[in-house]
């Protein structure tokens, strides 16, 4: 059974490599996200990205669109804080595939055990995702925590008879992740509509708070009493963030029960049983 599994995995890996070679020989023109990956690699990509580029064709063909969107969103926020610069979803999933296959082959070389090799391959697959997910999660929370203050500053600028666009431009110079994001929007909006560009960036980020803010700003811009509406929006965003933080705090208590039992109660129980059992074992067996 074990030998048959090894042969099956070897055949699958060989077929996968043959497929990649066919893709390279045919020299198919990359399209969509893959074309961006190739252009990024040729301009400023790392050597690792260049090595992974042959995997881009099958990744673009067979990766589920939802996985690509989620991966691109995580990379979007990781790049906001200076991590994973120059990577896109296609390249990142290709990295996960290469890391998983490499982990499996390393496991087979080191242990000769298919089960342990599959575990090593799984670790190689999930580790890059865990890395970028952690960075993106912290960036999102930092962004949402700073968002109400930024909107309130825009409202204060508008109270001094400043247009919304001018208020956003002035406030974007404030330190923080929201100001950095807004500067990115302003650079991309050169010659374009600022609010529409803000909506496009918000959709790419997949952050609900940011998408909601961009939609509300588009409606506020068309109406009257803009400053009052911006202040109300800032208060609603702050209330939503506080409510979410309270929910996370409530969940933290129940989530900490299992780690506390494993790392505190179990060692305490084992130590207590050893202390109680030592005299009994000494009397029964006359010492060690």
Low-pLDDT runs of 5+ residues are: 20-44
Number of strands: 0
Largest sheet: none
Helix content: over 70%
- The fraction of residues in strands falls at under 5%
Mean pLDDT over all positions: 76
Overall shape: it is flat
Rg, alpha carbons:
27 Å
| Secondary-structure element pattern, one letter each | HHHHHHHHHHHHH
Structural class by SSE content: mainly alpha
| First-to-last CA distance | 45 Å
Number of helical regions: 13
Tally of separate domains:
2
Describe this structure in words.
The protein has 288 residues and is mainly α. The protein is built from 13 helices and no strands. Helix 5 packs across helix 7, helix 9 packs across helix 10 (194-205) and helix 11 (208-222) runs antiparallel to helix 12 (226-255). Mean pLDDT is 76; it is low at 20-44. The longest helix is centred in the middle third of the chain and has 46 residues, at 114-159. It has 2 domains: 2-138, no CATH class; 140-253.
